[in-house]
Fold this protein.
Amino acid sequence: MEIAELGEFGLIRHLTDTIEIQNAETRKGVGDDCAVLEYPAGRQILVTTDLLMEGVHFDLQYTPMKHLGYKSAMVNLSDIYAMNGRPRQMTVSLAVSKRFQVEDLEQFYEGLRLACEQHHCDIVGGDTTSSLTGLAISITCIGDVEKGKAVYRNGARDTDLICVTGDLGAAYMGLQLLEREKSVYNAQIQEARQRGQDLSSLPPFQPDFSGREYLLERQLKPEARKDIIDELNKADIIPTAMMDISDGLSSELHHICTQSNVGCRIYEERIPLDYQTAVMAEELNMNVTTCALNGGEDYELLFTVPLTMHDRVSAIPGVKVIGHITKAELGLQLVCRDGTEMELKAQGWNPLKSEKAKSDE
Amino acid sequence: MEIAELGEFGLIRHLTDTIEIQNAETRKGVGDDCAVLEYPAGRQILVTTDLLMEGVHFDLQYTPMKHLGYKSAMVNLSDIYAMNGRPRQMTVSLAVSKRFQVEDLEQFYEGLRLACEQHHCDIVGGDTTSSLTGLAISITCIGDVEKGKAVYRNGARDTDLICVTGDLGAAYMGLQLLEREKSVYNAQIQEARQRGQDLSSLPPFQPDFSGREYLLERQLKPEARKDIIDELNKADIIPTAMMDISDGLSSELHHICTQSNVGCRIYEERIPLDYQTAVMAEELNMNVTTCALNGGEDYELLFTVPLTMHDRVSAIPGVKVIGHITKAELGLQLVCRDGTEMELKAQGWNPLKSEKAKSDE
């Protein structure tokens, strides 16, 4: 169905009509000038926002709309958990070009709603409009946290333990895999065109993803670590600093160390890696540690806790201690497998930085 | 300066470094995974968001970046006032293509900050990223209102008075004027090109805006009606329904009547118009009432109050009673200057609706 048939308000109604409000804090959702929220006394409110652009943040050639909706929600939910908070509400704005159909947006919303239901987050509003080229997605997520329990980036102290959840680098390897198969596919199409062959006569393209399902899942369907926040809460641990790993471990450690005015020392051998990540890096002739440090899009949590909490934090499944905080003057150090030390550089994904500026660093 | 020289975090620091927090409710602004807000007990929180796309919502050929920043803020502030609330915080996301320089974004932020300072609103975060083509702007504004005092669209009752602020149609006339001068300019350039003339030898283009300054201002520099909310508050008036006029009076009356399950009757002769709007409409051979009803981008307030408040509401400068609410079965009626009645159609600006779908209505 053409989006133009419904118009803006028709489309919004169509996509949001059946949304059920899950949180008592949501007093009014979609349908007025503003959403209206009411939080009980003693809560602080968290706000995070992301703007995702087609061709920069996602490639629709290999990203199904449903996965895109799911991931767009997850990257924002992840920021709320990274403050030790709980997501409650979300606004969703989309700008779509003429090549999108109502069914595409239904798929997007299906993914979005799946993510929101899992995380008890209400979709309370947004904006749906047109764009001249491509798809733009802007999501704002609102959450809450008990007063005094928000965890910032600036609280890490000398001797604190540095912890990460899950494993790193897999989402980046998933991206490499998808990009590789896309190149193979596009090359086949181009060859067929050059031969003057009818494209519909080509055998269906079979991308080679066997044994790499985990990498694809990490790239296309990341999961915000609500479970870890639950576990930390159960274990009565409030991290001294925390953030989510979206641009790469190395870049995030720089943020925490700069804002906390400390240094750090992490151990290469302790960086959690999945077997598939290592195999794929080997195949692509890439250093797997570099991928884990700078790959990005892991949406795992990076946090610090006092040294005395070593046993309690180590007992949480999926949490790994990878090093410790040091005095600022010791800088950011990576202790390699062979015992040598090197300075950690922040080379994470940066959509606005030129290759030149990166290499100058 | 090239944006790539600064990179994402450098650019954000550059643009937000000198922002001063104005509200006690803002506990943490730019610089962490989330902004952190804390509202006193008894307040409800308002959230509104807008996504503006180059070529759809604005034309940089005649919109200075500073004005664009100012207007982007205003359209969101206006939504907060339309709930009878006060703006407190704003997040600002930008996606920019390579043709933008740091100076362009500085100008945008200058306009944004001017608007935010006037309305005591803190810029608390956002996202700055790249786009393949054009500029995308996503703003989310957060405000608050005393519990029980939020004004929705669904509270209008039979016999309530319908009020509008300021005057209508001028922003739309301003747009027509800018588009006309743009066409003249582009035609001159094209002719010179066809003659093979050096473009730099052309005399500077002088758009003809004399005596039309008000129309330009209404299009390029709209003002959210904080003053009216202050006056209503002073006069102890809480409207029964309210919204801001962004898509056109006619479209907004449809929203209020549908959500309140009522009809309305407004009088053509009472619709507030500026002299320049009337002159420009005449010149363009357009019906000025149609422009006022369907033009959009006025960012004035439309609200209803009980009949008993007639004298109090009429005493507020800039507020005009244009009609009254009726029973739903009487529909939405416009009483023309000659006494005839016609049905009000919602033909406001709709970025997603095809011309065909509009004419089918």
Notes: The two ends of chain A are 50 Å apart (CA to CA). DSSP finds eleven helices and 13 strands in chain A.
